[in-house]
């Protein structure tokens, strides 16, 4: 969807003066809020209803996940630097910071894969209990969003490598950035509600 | 009309013909036509399902269809009419009209628009394939858990249903994003928000409802699919789950969905009534605010679908009050429409008859709806034919009547020819007679205790003859639809030629030729009033908008939306058909989306 809306004339005069692609992306993020809102609400409604373990406090590893949350938050910083570099026409900076953002995102995904494997070995599968189902589906969808963002970032990076990301195309990076920051914000909500407030 | 030589046009030639030009089209008018034709075919299919239901219920202990088939019929009737008929018929009007009404050359994202149509078409075909591949869904259009669990619905019907709704949801979402941005960002100079026609306003409210409501059912269906495919316990009570989770998520989507179905029809008649009363809409601002208020309130009433589950007196009272509250803006609109007609120079054209029919029938549906806003009354009515009567007065008497008003009104704009007025009046009178004969007795049948969704009933319960009457009514409706189809087919070729503004209407779409050229407006109109073509400067406006003053850039045709739509649909339908369809779908979707993103436009 997000990629799909890309590339309509920037030059169009608009009623509000706002760019249409940016506006549709904000609408998309509004829709995404309802999506993650429903997933998080389900997790919260089902918290403490399990008839069998493992329960959250037995299995969630706050120090480890704090680390991966930190990695993801840092990727928002590098995303900002990537956009700034593209806006200033600095191809070198754009390449470095886009790659750094994507790599930080991949580190987060690696952390999630490790975490999921670890939980599985401690006896928590999708089918085990409501915690397993609602936790894996919620964090899994978040991880999928990060993965889509990583693919998007590498696509932009390959454009930068071919010098096809001049300052005039900064909007492409800005919209990817909106998506990336949104995914980060969702993780802050998940980390707080699922990990910190048990 | 001032016309200029076409050589300054950079637009696709108007004479583009052939199948390929339709498959690759990004023209909002053509996509609107495709939406309309496709949705009308699904409307016929949904109608045939309803006919079979009524034949089965014609007499007690009838054996026309088996209980199993009956379940599939009412499930697919509801699903088809809501997701494949009324919503896309509304989308057809959005597509055709919104750019014309706001003075734009196309929507904000023309290829996304094409994409949403193709996803809708493929999703509609997918969900109907279930009839030939092991049985259609049979758990009702609302698919309550845990009837939908693998234990109680082992067949593929529920899988087709859940995956099909996900695909159709994608189409609705793509279209809604597009129309939000189009309406906010593509208005002609001077067209402030409060100068937009009411239909545009209702489209905007509907689109916001779609983008906020569909994610909720997406999540509900994701849980269901996880339960069915991986053995999770989201809706399985033995694992500690609460099956009411489904009902809450479903109706949190489902009630805004009701307004998604009715607001566009309200918008349509808000255009038709002023034109044929020769009066501006009474209380324009109040009608707009009422529509917005309905959009907001639609989020606070969902549990009135769940009074019978026993949510407790506090929740019941809250949702009873909000439900009664939402009747206020609806009532305000009805009185505004009546005041619009009052004292006007009324012309009873077919479009006007349908619009007036809407007011009457929708009011009756509203009154019975208001009755089951009260929990004690609702407990008597729930799951009986009383509720069936209610929703059909609102959705058939309301949404479908409104849509037919729109078809008669804008058909001349779309094709350049009138629909036959004589046949149109036959259509209207037979339809309103047929629908009342069909649905009015259901109020009594329901209050006498006949449960809905049950394939038969014993004799001598006091409602045998009323069921027979309902079934007779269906055939009157069928007669009216046949007249309409005949009218449509003959008018496309031989209808009376309509000019640019055959009705003397106030809104911008009537300032340009019928059918409009591919680029719509030669130069973009300047709007200074709410009813620009009724303003004293309207002659100048009519000339200006048809004068081409500079190069016009129109988006070129593209086949990537079709490729992407096919890929995405195959990917999602892989959940039912397996990896052999899903993996090629994934690749196709990737190729389609990437090529689309990097295609110049």
Set out the fold topology:
The complex is a heterodimer of chains A (198) and B (601).
Chain A: H1 20-46, H2 56-59, H3 62-87, H4 91-121, H5 130-161, H6 170-196
Helix pairs in contact in A: 1-5, 1-6, 3-4, 3-6, 4-5, 5-6
Chain B: H1 19-23, H2 28-56, H3 67-102, H4 110-129, H5 157-185, H6 198-230, H7 244-277, H8 284-297, H9 313-341, H10 350-371, H11 375-381, H12 385-415, H13 421-447, H14 464-494, H15 538-545, H16 560-577, H17 579-597
Helix pairs in contact in B: 2-3, 2-4, 2-14, 3-4, 3-5, 3-7, 3-12, 4-5, 4-16, 5-6, 5-16, 6-7, 6-8, 7-10, 7-12, 8-9, 9-10, 10-12, 10-13, 12-13, 13-14, 16-17
Tell me what you see in this structure.
The complex is a heterodimer of chains A (198) and B (601). Chain A has 198 residues and is mainly alpha-helical. Chain A has a single domain (17-47, 63-196), classed as Four Helix Bundle (Hemerythrin (Met), subunit A) (Up-down Bundle), CATH 1.20.120.80. Chain A is 74% helix and 0% strand. Chain B is mostly helical and 601 residues long. Chain B has two domains: 6-557, Cytochrome C Oxidase, Chain A (Up-down Bundle), CATH 1.20.210; 558-601. In chain B, 65% of the residues lie in helices and 0% in strands. Chain B is built from 17 helices and no strands. Chain B is globular, with a radius of gyration of 24 Å. At the A-B interface, helix 1 and helix 5 of A face helix 4, helix 5, helix 6 and helix 17 of B.
Unreliable segments of chain B (pLDDT under 50, ≥5 consecutive)? Answer: 1-13
Terminus-to-terminus distance of chain B: 31 Å
Oligomeric state: heterodimer
Q: Biggest sheet of chain A, open or closed, and with what strands and sense?
A: none
Q: Structural class of the secondary structure composition of chain A? A: mainly alpha
Give the strand tally of chain A. 0
Radius of gyration based on Cα positions of chain B:
24 Å
Q: Beta-sheet strand percentage of chain B?
A: under 5%
Total separate domains of chain B: 2
Q: Report the CATH C-level class of the largest domain in chain B.
A: Mainly Alpha
Number of strands of chain B: 0
